[in-house]
């Protein structure tokens, strides 16, 4: 196998942080190479340099035997590097063909392009209708648009940044078949993911980054997932402890809960029903954009639903807003931490007041009790190991993982009766994620009812007593997680959303 | 053809000319907004176009150079706005309002010496026997070249936005500047170009007011036409053909109410003067409400500042 890409001594520093420090890496032709690391380990910076979005400070890159310093993404594409982004680089109001055309240097006329999209997408088992608006597509279908856009340029190296986080297990399998086919045809793939099992099944080689430095090159097939995780984290980490819990009475009940879409391309909620008992953790899985945000909004009171659809201990709370619900013990932590769960420009103390004022009595006669508020913020910081100089720091100054710990901790420490969280460990490193999961389990052990909405199925299997799938705004019948197989879960999530396998 | 003291054919002929300033400004603003920038300074760019065009035409004695001067003045104003909002990332709404106030003040200063002066006339195009065709001749073949140019511009903008690569990139930048940047498009450059084009068209519209419609220079002569152009773009759901419809309706009702006043109808003058503004907006609101797209057709990045922070 000849070397397609060779990187040596690559360094990139941002003010206050060295994102990539003397990174070396080689990828052979047709090799599927994994790039592993915690958040902030420097994976994104590395691929951005490869794709011409960021310029390295030092170091050399050689691609197909020649020095490679792409000035911008066009140059990278021209050289044969294509990238599928983690956050899709798609335009919702444009159709599939237009989106594909925007990613090409010299696109053919629209009609030919549409025919070509049909042809390529069917060849690789990723059927697409070129005339549909991207805004109407599911997350899996959007990813297909990105992949097809790359494939049309006949790339030599395909970079994929966490491609499976939005896919059902069946869709992942089909994607892997497509990737293997590409690899057999000689296209190298640089594959970024957190999911270690996936990497072990798919990748031929791996480079592990920690704190911007390469800590290991290895063959992931020869390592266990645990060994890989420890290389990423740089030490052993705890596994959550799931004590046996007694289930109490039904605390929260939804009956025929429906809600119109909140945004132009958003889903509606359709006849959602479930019962939640004290001490129980209900896991709700599903591919992003199937109603998770909407569900959290109705449960937290941000969106009120029709009377008689939501009951707390036999009392109708459907018409109550967030504060009356908080007063009754129903708390929530939404997915988007910056701008939804926390106000970016306000300090941690002020952010603590915003949701904690009722239950922690942080205001008196309309005046903020500054001392009590600071104490509460400090409790959250110490209780959840939030790494920050103090409660006076603005929320946006915290890293994503630290802020996530803060917004979860803020709700947990208010001793809720019902806690609803969406993507509680999204973008949080493994050790902190384990701590957050443990906090949720401890809360349930104390008799609170918890709903965890997440796209991470492993996480749900770890914390939840029962599992339900959210698919196009419908919630499946919850099933006990004990004995539930990943295939069954995949089918509950809606299977492969009309995908077919690549013809090999 | 005269109905109720109103000459219908004459009215339609006047309508096209009366609508031209607003049509030009709205078409330009449509392009700017499609690239994701909300420029509320249309009124200011128009009036600067009006005074600069007037001055250039008087100085050279050539109305064509006058229109050119108007377009350049509008484009310069828009470029100033682009520098403020695209490079220094200042708030677009506040900057746009400031641009309007700035334009109104500066134009009054520049225009001091031009009050009461008559500009060189802009000739109507001679279509020969075509203009003798009954009805059609007077409506279609009786105008100066700017009227035809403004219609041509609508067609060109429509074709470019819908069918060309340039238009696709422009729309992409307006929909999601982050995605466009990630794909390697130069967001700020595209927006500079779109703003300058919008400014040039607003300047042309202003010059048409001072050189053809009125034709003389008076302080504040745009009288809110720039704001109407802005409203038309929004309620036309960012579609060129509906912009044409909105502009012609506004011009039509303006012309009609003047004739109603002249014909001596017992309707209070204030209501008549108000009518074009009210009716245009009401009709466009109804139009955009009927079609599901409505205000949701707005470019998704409209009014948001872009900074390449990756």
Automatic annotation (TrEMBL), chain A:
GO terms for cellular component: plasma membrane. Its main location: membrane. Pfam families: ABC_tran (PF00005). InterPro entries: AAA+_ATPase, ABC_carbohydrate_import_ATPase, ABC_transporter-like_ATP-bd, ABC_transporter-like_CS, P-loop_NTPase. It is a peripheral membrane protein. The keyword ATP-binding applies. It comes from Thioclava dalianensis. It comes from the Bacteria. This is ABC transporter.
UniProtKB/TrEMBL annotation, chain B:
It comes from the Bacteria. It is a multi-pass membrane protein. GO terms for cellular component: plasma membrane. CDD domains: TM_PBP1_transp_TpRbsC_like. One of its GO terms (molecular function) is transmembrane transporter activity. The chain crosses the membrane at residues 6-25, 37-59, 65-89, 96-114, 145-163, 183-209, 221-238, 245-265, 271-290. It is found in: Cell membrane. The keyword Transmembrane applies. The keyword Membrane applies. InterPro entries: ABC_transp_permease (IPR001851). Keywords: Cell membrane, Membrane, Transmembrane, Transmembrane helix. PANTHER family: ABC TRANSPORTER PERMEASE PROTEIN, SUGAR ABC TRANSPORTER INTEGRAL MEMBRANE PROTEIN-RELATED. This is ABC transporter permease. It comes from Thioclava dalianensis.
